[in-house]
Each structure stands twice: as structure tokens, then as C-alpha cells.
Amino acid sequence: MRDDLYLLELAGETGALFFRHYEWTDKTITYGRFQQAEVVRHATPPEYTIYQRPTGGGVVNHSNDWTYSIIVPASHPKYRQKATDHYKEVHMSITEALRDMGKQTMLYEDTCNPCAKSELSLCFQKPARYDVVLKINGQKMAGAAQKRSKYGILTQGSLDKAIFPELDWVQFEEKFLNYLAQKLETEIEDTTWAQLALNRT
């Protein structure tokens, strides 16, 4: 997730928007920057590696999730909108993509109080406003957290793959990106880390 900070700075320099999806090779748990490391470590099985995210939010187990990051530069009009509005648009894109694939989800509209720093906040234990939940029972299946800096907005999100184990996640990514690109008024263009490094030098 440290790479996301690199992309955030690069977005501020170039005005480019970035999206990336990545997976985990080890048993990993991440926690938000407002959570206390000792609290998380105490509650985490020893076989798990833990990392602190630069964004907020609670504890996320990445054993079976679909992890992504979105970076919007400070020069983009969306940088000036409310953080909750950007959060809502990202998750609306997820619900639209899932709808196209026959999955009934919606945005959670209620508000909830964040946990105190001394408490262990499990991200998928309860939804926050504009998280993605199942229509049938309100179970949370997607959440995210943000970091705003002078370079832009970083959104780091996660979807629980166990809820839809049969889902074609490659197809989901394509649909999700298309809806997201429409809302961000941008075009999708593939790139590599090598190209990014070359363009920066």
C-alpha cells in the first residue's frame, strides 16, 4: 500500500488519475491510521502480517478480498467536492457493476459513530454511511477509506469476495472501471510501473 502514496504524489505532479487492483500473497491484515497498532496486534493471530494504511478506517482481513486504490489529483474538479460525495460515487460504481452482473446491493444510508482509538474497529463488522451492503439483509460487502493531501485524494477500498464466490472478478473490474471513469469524466488507459517511472524521470 506504500505504492499508493507514490501514485498520490505522482498524480499531484502530472494531473493523472490512477486506479490499481492488487492481491495479497501472505496472510495480511491492515488497519487505518487512527487505529492503535498495539490494539490491532494484540487481537491478530501471530501468523498474520499487519500493516498500517495511510488512509483511515478499521481493520481489514485480506484473506479473501478484492483490494483496490483510486487516486484523484488535486487539479481535478472532484478534488473540491465533499469527501463523502466522492466516497458515494466510488461505491455507487460498485453497486452498478454488481447490478449488471445480477447482484442486488445498495448503499448504506444511515450514519454510525466511529470507534474510539482504544477500541478495535473491524471494517466489515458494521457498515458506515455509503458502504455497499446486500439488499436482502444489509450485510456489508464493500468499504473504503480516504486520505486527502495537497497532491490529491487517495481512496483504498476492499470487497468481500466470499459473499459472491462465483462472481467473475475480471468482468467486475471492467464494469466497475467503466462506471467510475464516467463519474470522473476520464478515459481508461492501461500503463505499467516501468512506464510511470520513465514518465517521471
Sequence stretches where pLDDT stays below 50 over 5 or more residues:
none
CATH topology: BirA Bifunctional Protein, domain 2
CATH architecture: 2-Layer Sandwich
Helix content: 25-40%
* Mean pLDDT across every amino acid position: 90
Briefly note the structural class of the backbone. Answer: alpha+beta
The major pleated sheet works out as: 6 strands, antiparallel
Count of domains: 1
* N→C terminal distance: 22 Å
Helix/strand order = HEEHEEEHEEEEHH
Kindly provide the name of the CATH class: Alpha Beta
Output the radius of gyration.
Answer: 17 Å
Strand line-up of the largest beta sheet = 1-5-9-8-7-6
3D architecture notes:
The chain is α+β, with helices and mostly antiparallel strands and 201 residues long. The chain has one domain: Bira Bifunctional Protein, Domain 2 (BirA Bifunctional Protein, domain 2). Helices cover 31% and strands 24% of the residues. The protein contains five helices and nine strands; from the N terminus they run H-E-E-H-E-E-E-H-E-E-E-E-H-H. The protein has helices at residues 2-14, 37-43, 83-100, 169-184, 193-200; strands spanning 18-22, 28-31, 49-52, 60-61, 65-73, 105-107, 132-134, 140-148, 152-160. The strands form two sheets. The protein has a six-stranded antiparallel beta sheet with strand order 1-5-9-8-7-6, sandwiched between helices. 33% of the residues are buried.
